[in-house]
Amino acid sequence: MIQIPEHLSKERLLDLYEQMWLIRYFDEKVDEFFAKGMIHGTTHLAVGQEASAVGSCAVLKEEDKITSTHRGHGHCIAKGADINKMMAELFGRETGYCKGKGGSMHIADLDKGNLGANGIVGGGFAIANGAGLTSRMKDLGYVVLCFFGDGASNEGSFHEALNLASIWDLPVVFICENNQYGMSGPVKDMINIEHIASRSGSYGIPGKVVDGNDVFDVMNAVGEAVEHAREGNGPSLVECKTYRWKGHSKSDAKKYRTREEEKEWRDKDPIKRMKEAMLEKEIVTEEEVEEIKQQAKRKIEESVEFSKESPEPDLSTLLTDVYAD
Amino acid sequence: MREITYLEAVREALSQEMRENEDVFMLGEDIGVYGGAFGVSRGMLEEFGSERIRNTPISEAAISGTAVGAALTGMRPVLELQFSDFITIAMDNLVNQAAKIRYMYGGKGSVPMVLRTPSGSGTGAAAQHSQSLEAWVAHVPGLKVVQPSCGSDAKGLLKAAIDDNNPVVFYEHKTLYKTSDHVPEEAYSIPLGKADIKREGTDATIVATAAMVPKALEAASKLAEEGIETEVVDPRTLVPLDKETIVESVKKTGRLLVAHEAVKRGGFGGEIASTIAESEAFDFLDAPIMRLGGAEVPIPYNPNLEKATVPSVEDMIDSVKQMVHYDTWRENHG
Amino acid sequence: MANEIFMPKLSSTMEEGVILDWFKEEGDEIETGEPIFEIMTDKINIEVESYHDGILLKKYFHKDDTVPVNHVIGFIGEQGEEVPDTPPASDEESSADESSSPEQETAAPAQEPETEVSTEKVRATPAARAAAREKNVSLHNVSGSGPKGRIHKADVLSSGSQGKSTPLAEKMASHHGIDTKNVEGTGAGGKVMKNDINALLAESSENRPENVTESLRGVRKVTAERMADSSSTIPHVTMDFEVDMEQVIRLREALKSSVEKATGQKLSYNEIFVLAVSKALQRHPDINITYDKETITYHNEVNVGVAVAVEENLYVPVLKNTERKSLSMLADELKPLIFNTREGRIDSASMQGGTFTISNLGMFAIDSFTPIINKPQGAILGISRMKEVPVVKEGEVKVSSVTTFSLSFDHRVINGAPAAAFCTTLKNLLEEPYELLV
């Protein structure tokens, strides 16, 4: 049974619980629309990984920033994005976050501190450093969370960026969502150490491993790392052990893993675990959690309606937004 | 007006901008106490301190991406890469991040950064430290590309580049660092996308970039001794490109030679030649467009071989004579 | 039905020809075989003879016009026959049209007017085209000064209205206050040239004529390019060797009358040289080669080219299979070949296929020289004058006639030793020439 931190109010807990469902319903809806051919291109779903996104962002202040990954819908929602604009972007509509120019892998919400998803594996490390540097040089006091996957930790940019963040004491928390596979590559075949967090030792920064399917465990660890950074002590590395339920992207036959393994991880469903902990402590009732769940579902349905009703971008917008004035 | 070197002009532009705007800072390898691989930032650490003259580890991927992130969040970083060849290692941040962020985000956010870097051959640095890869970056929408050919241009263009709200790749040609010209002391800006006619002429146009500009001017003055008046146009920025000035020049002269140090195959000269072929200057062409570019080889070490890889003054003279169909031309002009 | 006169295709590489001169005017009678006009190709100047009897009905092109191969130049037919006002498309094009749309042809017979606009592309710069449009000048009537006859803007401007003088002549004339209309031109079609102005100035005053400049065209241009190409791409090595000519002189004296009796031609040293070279090449197949595209070809037959200068032009007519020919056969062939070359009546086929070249400057006061290889051949033999010199024979000083031979060879593909061996064989054959008769 997972432990609920005492300082969290019921309201806050239900808010986080709703975020978890929003993420799950959002990605499941996207999955369905892809299958129906209503959304084109490609997309990467984070079903099963809701806790690392929600737990991490739960400890942030409004002015703090994140950099996200190609599997970024969850981070986006957890950082307070407008679901309608997200869904509209996946539909490629004018009302989407990127006016239909970015799609699934490039949603950003600079006003909310989301510096953007990134289609390049490992593309966010140095950008997070740059944002951290701005915070330092302008004395803005914000912290940057840099999400990345187990696969990205094998990119050179990971190592260069952690070293640079370390020597410059940048206020960046690097959050590895270790979902066990880099596309089809099992982490055990690609990395010869048990914990990616151990790599922090090479750069002289704190590293911690947490249960990525325990939203509170994530909150505690990331919260600590954020405070460490905010106080000017530099970066940390937090590794969340989790699992993606779906394939890497569309048309993934998942031949690289077994049904048994998938079932094992579904049993560790982060949403179910959170609900059970709250019921166990009698903070909430069955009816209340069900109502939250239905509320999340409605919001997603509404976002679909919003998107379907939104206009396609005018062809005249093709050539705009390449350069800033 | 006083004369200073190209290198001093670059340093002066940087220093003036940093005094003017607190958001401007520099980062790069060995730019601190050492003063930069070519000495551009010498003395700047003393004036601006290590927070704003940020000496970095040898991590081109990290420092280029850090510049992108800092620019995206409100700073105006000036990144120095020691040799433009190393842009390969910074390419992801330049091409996939800096150039695309604004468009991908639907017009939100901007990346006002400058990547300064010395380019070109002529120093015996051989294949991995002598290239001219500007066509690569000029190919990418979202980037601006500047190639100043003299100190006074470098100073004004660098201010414009730093003030610009987009990622700008600013090439400084190594062999030009030591050249001097009249450079105003006060800060001034030369707009990006404005070509300069370095010499006026009526019989042929040479569009030359970077270190080819002084060579084109030398060729033009030698051609003038034989009565051929050559116009020398320096685009100064490849992106944006001042097509109008080039088109007008070719309409006047009817002949175009494009000269750059970069390898001819796939070089930016092809873009300029095509621009003319597609423009109304086409009807004024009285000879096939010619291009001079680097030989299709890696830059060799031996000085004679190295020199032979890039177009010479003589090559330019020969090409212009060929275009004006010199034998007939001489007969008609006495 | 009138017969077409067209630009003949004289070699596989010929794409167009320039009309140098017309020998007939419209209305003149022409017999089959009679020359109608002279053309210049990239290789040669040649008179084009008529294939038909009749009246010259139409000339579409003028002196100095460049005309594509197979393009109709004019018509020969019977007095009063109708011919089109503009040149019809060439045979190739019209026959292609016929085969592609035969049904249309029969369905719509001869309703449309006969005027056909030429679709032949003229080589001209965009600026020249724009100028031609503006001045309403047909580019077909403008001769181009650029490479391959490309028409430049200046060519268009100097054609048409002012037309009858070169730009330079015009400029000089205006400088000296002369009206070119009053000057008799010596250029093509009476065009006033710079020299005409100079001549006028020289007559009238103490003005000194200016230097003559001339842009290379036709054969001279091709020769210039080939010389430069050969000289700059082939590492030439030249070996000089002296040959005592006493026996050659005697041989010629002895055979002269019988050769003349058999062929009607006078035997000259050239035939003996060709024969000796052919025999020597047979014994040294590594010299009888051509080298092209990094491939050496060893030729079974010996085809010897003989350099012939005709005014400022250089031609190399080729004698085929000389290794199988006797002196009288060679005389019978070489004499007319050289004669025709000098008369400008050689076709380009007669100048192809050479495996070795001889350049004989024996008629000049030249003691030795370095001939330039005739690409793609491997070697060339230069022959200088014969002169009497004191020679030591069997311990005695005697006067003997001696000639220096100079062999230039391509050192990429022929080494010094085989070249020297060839020279030695040739020297021996010439000094003991009776072996040639075997």
> How many extended strands of chain B?
14
Structural class from helices and strands of chain B?
alpha/beta
> How is the CATH topology of chain A named?
Rossmann fold
Which structural class best describes the helix and strand composition of chain A?
A: alpha/beta
Biggest interface reads: A-B, 45 and 44 residues
Helix-strand topology string of chain B: EHEHEHEHHEHEHEEEEHEEHEHEHHH
What number of structural domains do the residues of chain B give? 2
Order of helices and strands of chain A: HHEHHHEHEEEHEHEHHH
- Which CATH-level-2 architecture of chain A? 3-Layer(aba) Sandwich
Overall 3D form of chain A:
globular
Strand content of chain B: 15-25%
| Biggest sheet features of chain B | 7 strands, mixed
| CATH homologous superfamily placement of chain A | Thiamin diphosphate (ThDP)-binding fold, Pyr/PP domains
Strand order of the largest sheet of chain A: 1-2-3-7-6
GO biological process, one term (chain A): pyruvate decarboxylation to acetyl-CoA
GO molecular function (chain A): pyruvate dehydrogenase (acetyl-transferring) activity
Protein name (chain A): Pyruvate dehydrogenase E1 component alpha subunit
InterPro entries (chain A): DH_E1, PDH_E1_Alpha_Subunit, THDP-binding
Protein architecture, described:
The complex is a heterotrimer of chains A (325), B (334) and C (438). Chain A contains eleven helices and seven strands. Chain A has a five-stranded parallel β-sheet, sandwiched between helices. Chain A has a two-stranded antiparallel sheet with strand order 4-5. Chain A is globular. In chain A, helix 1 (10-36) packs antiparallel against helix 10 (270-280) and helix 1 packs across helix 11. Chain A has helices at 10-36, 50-57, 73-78, 83-90, 124-137, 156-167, 187-190, 215-230, 259-266, 270-280, 286-309; strands at 65-67, 144-149, 172-178, 181-182, 185-186, 207-211, 236-241. Chain A is α/β, with parallel strands linked by helices and 325 residues long. Chain B is α/β, with parallel strands linked by helices and 334 residues long. In chain B, helix 3 packs parallel to helix 4. In chain B, 40% of the residues lie in helices and 19% in strands. In chain B, the strands form three sheets. Chain B has a seven-stranded mixed β-sheet with strand order 3-2-4-5-7-6-12, sandwiched between helices. Chain B has 13 helices and 14 strands. Chain C has 438 residues and is an alpha+beta fold. In chain C, a hairpin with a 4-residue loop joins strand 4 and strand 5. In chain C, helix 5 packs parallel to helix 6 (194-204) and helix 9 (269-283) crosses helix 11. Residues 91-117 of chain C have low confidence and may be disordered. Chains in contact: A-B, B-C.
